[in-house]
Design a protein that fits this description.
With 203 residues, the chain is mostly beta strands. It has one domain (3-38, 48-201): Fumarylacetoacetate hydrolase, domain 2 (Alpha-Beta Complex). The protein has four helices and 13 strands. A seven-stranded mixed sheet has the order 2-1-11-5-6-8-3, with helices on one face. Strands 10-9-12-13 form a four-stranded antiparallel sheet, with no helix packed on it. A two-stranded antiparallel ribbon has the order 4-7. Strand 9 and strand 10 (138-144) form a beta hairpin. The two termini are 27 Å apart. Bound molecules: zinc ion.
Length: 203
């Protein structure tokens, strides 16, 4: 399976990092070895510098497809969850400034944290999902999928022109504003429409 991620998909987050608001989705991949799940603790890779949290809605692909039309894209994911796209921000900035790929800053072990998934039918309007991250009980990120620059369907249509989607692939759909560094002892809890789907600690 593969993990497909969308960068800069909320305008407020693109601006906070002084990036242009994109006209096409910004796509990168993480290896499957990046997955951390079942509420296991995230051990900070201290040799990588500052590690930022990025709370994101994650889609689980439920059937294979390529060149998927936007109109049919909603049939290609059946479950939705929350994840953290951990990012080695210092390293990413260095790579970006040299025009190099981001993988080392985005694909390290534990950088794709997954919470619980729920059937998309149980969530109501998917264009109005509230996502929120609390760290040690205080709100740090908050967003709503109505502010996505590229909808779930647009992402699937775009990505599937390049990569065949396979059942079990995951799509991280981008983070709203509020990213910052985590530190040992932090307790992260992610809420989707007020339901806690993600809960783990940083060590
Ligand atoms: Zn991200």
């Amino acid at each position: 399976m593969k993990i497909i991620c969308v960068g800069r998909n909320y305008a407020d987050h693109a601006r906070e990092l002084n990036n242009e608001v994109p006209t096409e989705p910004v796509i990168f991949l993480k290896p499957d070895s990046a997955i951390l799940k079942d509420g296991k603790a995230f051990y900070l890779p201290e040799h990588l510098g500052e590690i930022h949290h990025e709370l994101e809605v994650v889609l689980r692909v439920c059937k294979n497809g390529k060149h998927i039309h936007e109109k049919f894209a909603s049939a290609y994911y059946d479950q939705i969850g929350l994840g953290i796209d951990f990012t080695a921000r210092d390293l990413q900035s260095k790579l970006k400034s040299k025009g190099l790929p981001w993988e080392l800053a985005k694909g390290f072990d534990g950088s794709a944290v997954l919470g619980n998934f729920v059937a998309k039918e149980t969530l109501g309007e998917l264009q109005e999902l509230e996502l929120r991250l609390e760290i040690n009980g205080s709100e740090r990120q908050q967003g709503n999928t109505r502010d996505l620059l590229f909808s779930f369907e647009k992402i699937i249509a775009f990505v599937s022109q390049y990569f065949t989607l396979r059942q079990g692939d995951l799509i991280f759909t981008g983070t709203p504003a509020g990213v910052s560094a985590v530190k040992p002892g932090d307790h992260l809890q992610g809420y989707l429409n007020e339901t806690c789907l993600l809960d783990f600690e940083v060590k």
